[in-house]
Amino acid sequence: MSKDIRIKKGLNINLVGAAEQTTSKAVLSNVYAINLNDFHGIMPKMLVKEGATVKAGEPIFYNKDVEEMKFVSPVSGELVEIVRGARRRILTLKIRANKSGEVVEHSTLNLASASAEDVKSQLLMSGCWPFIKQRPYDVVANPNVAPKAIFVSGYTTAPLAANLDYVLQGKEKELQAAITALATLTSGQIHVSVGSSNSPLSGLSGVTEHKVAGPHPAGLVGTQINKIDPVNKGEVVWTVNAQDLVIIGELLLTGKFNPQRTIALAGSAVKSPKYYTTTIGSEISTFLYGSGVSIENFRVINGDVLTGSKTSPEGYLGFYNNTVTVIPEGDDYEFFGWNKPIFNKISSTRAMTFSWLNPKKKYDLNTNTNGEHRAFVVTGAYEKVFPLDIYPMQLLKACMIKDLDEMEQLGLYEVAPEDFALTEFICISKQPHQQIIREGLDLLQKEIG
Amino acid sequence: MGLKNTLHNLKEKYKGKKMAPAFNAIHTFLYLPNETTHSGSHVRAADDLKRTMNTVIMALIPVLIFGMFNAGYQHYSAINGFPADFSLLNDFLTWDNFLVGLTTVLPLVIVSYVIGLAVEFIFAVIKGHEVEEGYLVTGMLVPLIVPIDTPLWMLAIAVIFGVVIGKEVFGGTGMNILNPALTIRAFLFFAYPTWMSGDKVWVHEAVERAGTADAISGETILGQLAQNTDASYSISDMFFGFIPGSVGETSTFLILLGGLFLIFTKIASWRIMLSAVIGALTMGLIFNGVVSADWISEGSKFYGLMSFEFWQHLLVGGLAFGIVYMATDPVTGSQTNKGKWYYGFFIGFISVLIRVFNPAYPEGVFLAILLMNVFAPTIDHYVVQSNVKKRLKRSNKATA
């Protein structure tokens, strides 16, 4: 059974600096880091002390709320530093790699006969579970609540994001293993969306395949959920990044947690943007300087320009990221920037902005907000880039005034912050949409659970 | 660049001080700020609120300039009679006409901006928020919707009232319920009714000359129709705007161009404009129908306006101006796309209704818009509820 999804509302943000389809091996990192901000809402409980030696795949901490959920070291080495923030909250764990290369080996599962409990405990103890996220709330999935369906998007539309068809080439075996295992965890279907039948994700067995077409955010899993099987109150769906299926699949097949992935290094500030094979938690400088940066004043983003988080060359590759983007900082003034005709920036209007003349043109955007924060004024603009059956501005306002009933009624259960990245991009009032939605989700989770 | 660095250093110096919003307002007028994104989307589209507001002002400039010429044209025509064979260059676009406009209209513009922005700056400093751009458009709309001889002190009081009560008490730009420019207009109308209507305020100096040997008449078309006299202007005069009226409302042609510009730039909602036109035509047709069905006699006091061709309603009075520039205000209008259809339709519909049934003051568009401003949240509520109900129904089906 297949259902096509065709999105009309949206906006493709064409940027210069797309990664060329060649892959290099990144230099091995000395220090690896686990950034706790990647796991929103998880309260960590440490299992090893500072200075302890760990193997690759050895649990370092667990989730205080679900003790079976372990988070493991990506490499073998020494836990050299626990970076803490305000109120001793753990921010980052740093592990200096050693040469031993010792790996924790789990027994492999017989996928054909494995039960849901087997799969679940295997994923939980091996450190693969956090790859599974859930909606509502866009957090690491709660293993004790079975989802009504699982969604995987195999189609990327985000600007400069890694091309999944390219990075997943030859991984069909791992993908299939992961899908087979995940299928035991839901009574519903596994929905996989692909751009074309050439995708490595196309033709997997045990899934419902959907063909997706249209501008961004067609490739976002939130858009696909909304079009295929929206989340209702009281329901849960899980989502897994296509690339993380490979790590899950490899664990199931070999018993080893191998957090390697091919990432795209892209952006206008990168001299030779291309793909790198590297490991989760690696220092970004290990591949960034391999390609070179062409300017002095730049920003490194863990992820794509719409949803990533700000980092630096000394930062580390995030747990969920398969793209690192480097773009110029925009911390400069522009004389009469608010009223002169604009040719070099993207705009959703035609108010003396001319990006509508040539929709295929690629732009070199920087991080300037192009205006100051204001109250919501303009109406009807968000709807043009927001394909979900939700009133975006009304939902944002409900989150801002913390009206739980309205948040629920207007569909907050269905969305993640990333779904509001495009409305944030075009927002004339420069409101922080993703942050508003994140805070709304946190509040709803706290109050309703 | 010297200026850039000087201003930057000043900005840093004033940061956190009380006067910072006032300084920043001027600074950001010169330079797009150096603010960068922190989280969320790291790149942003080019548009901001200043650009949006600026686009509306650009659409208003032709109307303003035409209004200046028309002020002089109406003034001299009232004294000397209308030129026999009218030529645009020799009779209308003349330096004399423009001079009258300049000396009457420009003070209105200056008072509107100076007083209004002063109030905005004071509130921004007191409340510690940035000066928002809403008044840039309001300040331009106000002189265009008042009679030309409005005393400046009246305008100043009305502007203070409109900005404070119409906007700032709700929290400033984006939070107001009523269109501030129309609030100002309504204040003028209800506070000084003898000044704001009748046949003496639409042409420069008509008031001063009233009762003297030099008395001139300057009735608007709607005023004539309300008294059951025929409109004494041709259709093309009405369309191109060589008629008496508020400063900016007369030229339907330029308003139409401004409206098309706003639609093309995607700044204003075409849904509101189109549905308002449909609404006005519908009501006009109903009244025409009443007349042709002989339900009212020629002696009726409504006869003049009811028998007025339905589509000509769009050419006279402030209806076109209201539809294009006022009804489309995104803050006070309906915010949902579906809601905009209802909102616009009723503005057109009620405008013509008020126009016909209130012969004392036959201009209904500003009251219609203010009325629909009040109802816009209700319209949106029902539109959004249909989405909520759909979600609830889906949810019930899933759990049943």
> Mind telling me the C-alpha Rg of chain B?
23 Å
Rg of chain A (C-alpha, Å):
21 Å
**Structural class given helices, strands, pairing of chain A?**
alpha/beta
CATH architecture of the largest domain in chain A: 3-Layer(aba) Sandwich
Biggest sheet strand line-up of chain A: 1-14-13-12-15-10-11
Q: Which secondary structure elements does this structure contain, and how are they paired or packed?
A:
The complex is a heterodimer of chains A (449) and B (400).
Chain A: E1 2-6, E2 20-25, E3 31-35, E4 44-46, E5 53-54, E6 59-63, E7 70-72, E8 77-84, E9 90-97, H1 116-126, E10 132-135, E11 139-140, E12 149-154, H2 164-167, H3 172-183, E13 189-194, E14 208-213, H4 221-228, E15 237-240, H5 242-254, E16 260-266, E17 274-279, H6 285-291, E18 298-302, E19 309-311, E20 323-328, E21 334-335, H7 392-400, H8 404-409, H9 421-426, H10 433-448
Parallel strand pairs in A: 1-14, 2-17, 12-13, 12-15, 13-14, 16-20
Antiparallel strand pairs in A: 3-9, 4-6, 5-8, 6-7, 8-9, 10-11, 10-15, 16-17, 18-19, 18-20
Helix pairs in contact in A: 3-5, 7-10
Chain B: H1 2-14, H2 20-30, E1 31-32, H3 49-80, H4 88-92, H5 95-127, H6 134-145, H7 152-166, H8 180-191, H9 193-196, H10 206-209, H11 221-226, H12 235-240, H13 252-264, H14 270-292, H15 303-306, H16 319-326, H17 337-357, H18 365-399
Helix pairs in contact in B: 3-5, 3-6, 3-13, 5-6, 5-7, 6-8, 7-8, 8-18, 13-16, 14-17, 17-18
